[in-house]
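Milestone M4 deliverable, item 7.
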Amino acid sequence: MNKNELVEQIAKNAEITKVQAAEALDATIKAITTSLKKGNEVRLVGFGTFLTQKRKATKGRNPRTGAEIKIPASTQAKFRPGKALKEAVN
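Output delivered:
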């Protein structure tokens, strides 16, 4: 499912226009992104939790040349599914 298909489903389920559904989806994504940038979790009970996790700097190898490279530290966005979502999928 891509973003347009998701917007169609939201509009259909909430009985709103596609424009309103797209605005709501964009606002939701923006709110989650803003919260994660600040280092906060976003918990949606029954659905899951969006969180960030820090990765340490590591050394790696270029597979083509075999040269050692430095992989810088970074912050990764993670999603941990909730119990209801796990049960719905299985």
